[in-house]
Amino acid sequence: MPGTPRTKEKTMRLPKHIGVIPDGNRRWAQSKGMTKDKGYAVGVEPGLALFRLCKEVGIKEITYYGFTMDNTKRPTVQRKAFTAACIQAVEVMTQEDVALLVLGNSESRMFPKELLPFTTRRTCGKGGTKVNILMNYGWEWDLNHLKLADPAHKSIMKHLRSAAVSRVDLIIRWGGRRRLSGFLPVQSVYADFFVLDECWPDFQPEHLFRALQWYHEQDVTLGG
Amino acid sequence: MPGTPRTKEKTMRLPKHIGVIPDGNRRWAQSKGMTKDKGYAVGVEPGLALFRLCKEVGIKEITYYGFTMDNTKRPTVQRKAFTAACIQAVEVMTQEDVALLVLGNSESRMFPKELLPFTTRRTCGKGGTKVNILMNYGWEWDLNHLKLADPAHKSIMKHLRSAAVSRVDLIIRWGGRRRLSGFLPVQSVYADFFVLDECWPDFQPEHLFRALQWYHEQDVTLGG
Prior knowledge:
Two copies of one chain form a homodimer.
Chain A: E1 17-22, H1 25-31, H2 44-57, E2 61-68, H3 76-93, E3 98-103, E4 122-124, E5 130-137, H4 139-144, E6 170-174, E7 192-196, H5 205-217
Parallel strand pairs in A: 1-2, 1-6, 2-5, 3-5, 6-7
Antiparallel strand pairs in A: 3-4
Helix pairs in contact in A: 2-3
């Protein structure tokens, strides 16, 4: 009918950029009678599965919350375990068609040397989907860079250490906690926040679909 | 029994600082067959009720998300209505025992002139509980102040325009949206985020108690 608005429902409104907080690894390990450090290696496979699903659906950018500068203060056995898992996640990702970036304080010894080549974005395979993995990231480290910017420039985003990471539309957190825990505070200002009670190692494709369905039902106002 | 750890459950773990996002005013008005602008004035009374309850329970600081620089781009009739409601909220609050601060871009004409005296914290009555009301606030306006700071100083908090507002422990949002919408990005990095589906004008004391009960059940790690 002329003049009838086209129904928006016909296509699914997708987030361009998804932030992933893969929490609950330690609680998962303990629930299986294992020590906490055993919860990280099992998180690599879900990370790849999630990436492939996102790619298939048409998500343009994904940022994984690997580990933070705060996290590195945990017991050494845990620190080594999550660092190893994150390195493995990067290795696995280099086998995909992806534009890969590892972001974090790389001047510290907590940053794995072997990943230094990824601190500028690298094209793997045919490239395409942007994947950012935060490693030894800290929100203060990120925001402190603003102090070096010319106050005449009003933009914030461009002057962050995380400037290569765009605004996040949807954050999905596993493990039941309803908090950002320092995840990209600027890129997350308008993000919709979906929390799953399941721990990250128990990732199921259905989790992503549930989050996307929920996101689709939200209005997006960007603060307006 | 000697050596037995004291159970934490005996006392309720309370947030020191609660952030309040009183959303859903316009949807509430529409659901009552009123125009959107009619949803703001009815939000003043709940704000006072919430304050009194918080004070009673022992909360030390409350920050209300009044309106943002983005919000002022809405239709004039709405802008006037939420500005008037926020002014009234401040007037009402001055009758309480409170240390009151109105925070936002006061150099703009969108900032109500009559509230300029509150842009530095004022003691009302016997003082005590800190109450911050964000008016014509903008996260970029807030963070841009970091560009004036000496890069040698590593702290972020001290160099924000919102430096007088402390870290937020619990954010309660009415109106069902699960997002921060630019609310104090730095103070909120570790905040636990509780969302109520009820619109703000339908505030009930039970909402606060539900949020506090939930907060009590969370662990607090501050990113560790």
